[in-house]
Amino acid sequence: AQKITQTQPGMFVQEKEAVTLDCTYDTSDQSYGLFWYKQPSSGEMIFLIYQGSYDEQNATEGRYSLNFQKARKSANLVISASQLGDSAMYFCAMRIYGGSQGNLIFGKGTKLSVKP
Amino acid sequence: EAQVTQNPRYLITVTGKKLTVTCSQNMNHEYMSWYRQDPGLGLRQIYYSMNVEVTDKGDVPEGYKVSRKEKRNFPLILESPSPNQTSLYFCASSLRGRLNTEAFFGQGTRLTVV
Fold this sequence. Notes:
heterodimer, A: mainly beta, six-stranded mixed sheet, four-stranded antiparallel sheet, B: mainly beta, 11 strands, globular
């Protein structure tokens, strides 16, 4: 069965420092995609970054990068130079190719608090 | 503007009173789904639809119904709501058959059943 594990329920980081949010996944499929979403206190879900299982390079989007370690089945989100506006819930998610061809499986999330 | 629209945003209702949460997308996406979000549990899928008239159960379908009569709409129906269905609900849509396509989410519906 596919599963996403986020082991950090809550984290604090000092403004302007980098922070890593952990995500491990479990699947026997070879083709899959990994996503990170941000949920600010206003509640909406904001797509941040995507990594495909066959992508050789780690994905980057501005201050966000995904540290993809396929052998360890981990897909950690790195936020560089944290800002106060980064305070939010962060969800890691996985999509498997085939089957329902669309289902996103989510982790339980990590609440990030950025301190000034 | 590409978007998924959910209504209502907030709803307080009483146990047993049927309600419908609407969801509409303007991106011609085949795939639509409903999630509920509860503290400490993340997002769990309730139902999904791969196309018109094709729906299937997710992980937590009990107490919910859906229909997909048109491609753009995917309403969530609670025939007899109970307090354990108090939650934050999200509708999402995406292109079908593409691994790297992001899911677009509605703004969420915060439901309280008393």
